[in-house]
Amino acid sequence: MTDSGPKFKIFKFLKIIIISLLVTALLLFTVASIRTLSLDVNVGLKLARWEKTSNVSLVIDDHQREQLLAHFKEAIRIPTVSFSGEESNTSALLEFDRFLRKAFPTVFSSSLVRHELVANYSHLFWVQGLQSDLVPYMLLAHIDVVPASESDGWEAPPFSAKEIDGFIYGRGTIDDKGSLMGILQALEYLLIKGFAPRRGFYIGLGHDEEVSGYKGAMNIVRVLKQRGVQLSFVLDEGLAVLDGVISGLEGPAALIGISEKGSATVKLSVFMVPGHSSMPPRETSIGILAAAVKRLEDNPMPRLFGHGPERGTFEHLAHKVRGTSYLSIIAITFDSILHLFCCYAVIYSLVLERKPDTNAFVRTTTAVTMFNSGVKVNIIPSLAEAYVNLRIHSAQSLREVLDLIRSTVGDQRVKLELVDGFDPLPVSSMDETSFGYQIIKKTVLDMFPTVTVAPGICIGNTDSRHFKDLTNDIYRFAPIWFKPGDAQRFHGINERISKKNYEELVVFYFSLIKNCDIQKLPKPHSSIHEL
Ligand SMILES: *[C@@H]1O[C@H](CO)[C@@H](O)[C@H](O)[C@H]1NC(C)=O
Ligand SMILES: *[C@@H]1O[C@H](CO)[C@@H](O)[C@H](O)[C@H]1NC(C)=O
Ligand SMILES: *[C@@H]1O[C@H](CO)[C@@H](O)[C@H](O)[C@H]1NC(C)=O
Ligand SMILES: [Zn+2]
């Protein structure tokens, strides 16, 4: 199944059409009778009676608005860049520390808050709860950003925080200073209003997330483990509110990340006797390595769509899909006859794998990122090396992926070495008894009633992966609005957030912290009947 010639493409396309027609025919018989399932995905606990926990509320006036935006812009202007695992702008990190103390004086002086530095530049806050029997939770965000250069084509200098048409431009506006500042600004407001939480919580701000969090997040975890801390849930950056991004989907969707793909970096090397280019051997280290790399590209990892939590995403979005696109045909099918899911997953995989961004949901992806050999035009080099970066699908393990690479390469002369890697993250809970998921969902729906909330998977990785021994439930989400084209701004040029959206982040964390004060979740069914 590796031929990608034009003949095969036509065949594949016909196959998709034929199978889709069969699916449609099948639907005509089944849809009418069973299209009643899961229409209440957004209702559930929303209609239930939630315990009222506090009378504190947030109305941002013009003066506060001006001030919170000024703080946010100041945060963007400090170039807290991580250049590599070893090199970060430490003077910017120190400046950021001073800035936080100045911007949020109540957070840093409240008797309810204990603040400490971890690994010199990361911050850990403990906000004490009145009821020590309530299991604490944790909010995460990171201080560092990836490099940015104005010459790449930014409309405004990347550390200027310049305002254009209601948007603040700058590196870090969405990744991840929006959340970081939103969390601390919300806490500042809560404390000023005299709020004292019933449920204690932690806030962790790592300083090296963009280079894996080995110093910041890992040391925060070490400190918490030493203290025997267990967390109800962790909320970190990751997914967002997608508006018009998923084709065929009616209305915006808030995707809450319930897992992350795993990752592996594998080094391939071939060592041969060096020689002069005037007497070349039949095969060189470069040729052998190139062939191995080509085999990896020609034989993608198996399709696993439907075997991981991505299934839940499509089930939850199914009833909002319109039109007659493949997505709608397949999605309506998910909605109605879930037990036949596997058949359709195969067809849908064929559609998804045609685009790089959706292919990432279908399988473990394989990307050759470095290829080095040779130093002189007339010398046959002895050594050729390549690096392959893989992002592991939730239904596969690091071990399985390495075994597959070995068999695909199938050449003893190519040495394989795992440079760095980890399994996909466990899947967090999302049912009606899942405290963190339901709190996040309620907070989103209170603010944005027309949004569909669904679980999702993060294709990239976050600091929260280091926290998996402290909790079973890690969520990756912030209510940042992504419209078509916005995803490219992430780690790209013209990263920006609207002023309104930043304010929404503050309100979101303010409400979330309040909502976490309930003792336990309401019971959905009995409450719905009362209405
Ligand atoms: C909210 O205010 C009402 C009326 O002043 C009071 O009875 C109630 O106890 C307050 N609730 C909380 C959670 O503080
Ligand atoms: C590091 O940050 C400081 C501000 O704290 C800034 O003046 C300096 O230009 C930055 N250095 C680099 C290499 O970006
Ligand atoms: C913190 O700073 C001290 C002194 O500069 C240094 O020795 C130490 O290695 C740093 N710790 C970390 C975790 O970076
Ligand atoms: Zn980030």
From TrEMBL:
**Gene3D superfamilies per the UniProt record, alphabetical:** 1.10.150.900, 3.30.70.360, Zn peptidases (3.40.630.10)
- Protein keywords: Hydrolase, Lyase, Membrane, Metal-binding, Protease, Transmembrane, Transmembrane helix, Zinc
Q: Which InterPro entries match?
A: Bact_exopeptidase_dim_dom, Pept_M20_carboxypep, Pept_M20A, Peptidase_M20, Peptidase_M20_dimer
**GO biological-process terms attached to the record:** adaptive thermogenesis; amide biosynthetic process; amide catabolic process; amino acid metabolic process; lipid metabolic process; proteolysis
Q: Where is the active site?
A: 144, 209 (proton acceptor)
Please report the stretch or stretches of sequence annotated as the Peptidase M20 dimerisation domain.
258-411
Pathway-wise, it operates in:
Lipid metabolism; fatty acid metabolism; Amino-acid metabolism; Energy metabolism; electron transfer
**GO CC terms of this entry:** extracellular region
Please list every transmembrane segment annotated in the UniProt record, as residue ranges: 12-32
Reaction catalysis annotation: N-(5Z,8Z,11Z,14Z)-eicosatetraenoyl-glycine + H2O = (5Z,8Z,11Z,14Z)-eicosatetraenoate + glycine; N-hexadecanoyl-L-phenylalanine + H2O = hexadecanoate + L-phenylalanine; N-(9Z-octadecenoyl)-L-serine + H2O = L-serine + (9Z)-octadecenoate; N-(9Z-octadecenoyl)-L-asparagine + H2O = L-asparagine + (9Z)-octadecenoate
Q: Where does Zn(2+) 2 bind?
A: 142, 175, 236
In this chain, Zn(2+) 1 is annotated as bound at: 175, 210, 491
MF terms from GO for this chain are: aminoacylase activity; lyase activity; metal ion binding; metallocarboxypeptidase activity
Its biological purpose is as follows: Secreted enzyme that regulates the endogenous N-fatty acyl amino acid (NAAs) tissue and circulating levels by functioning as a bidirectional NAA synthase/hydrolase. It condenses free fatty acids and free amino acids to generate NAAs and bidirectionally catalyzes the reverse hydrolysis reaction. Some of these NAAs stimulate oxidative metabolism via mitochondrial uncoupling, increasing energy expenditure in a UPC1-independent manner. Thereby, this secreted protein may indirectly regulate whole body energy expenditure.
Question: Which protein family is named in the record?
Answer: Belongs to the peptidase M20A family.
- Name of the featured protein: Peptidase M20 domain containing 1, tandem duplicate 1
* Organism from which the protein derives: Cyclopterus lumpus
What gene is this protein translated from?
A: LOC117733688
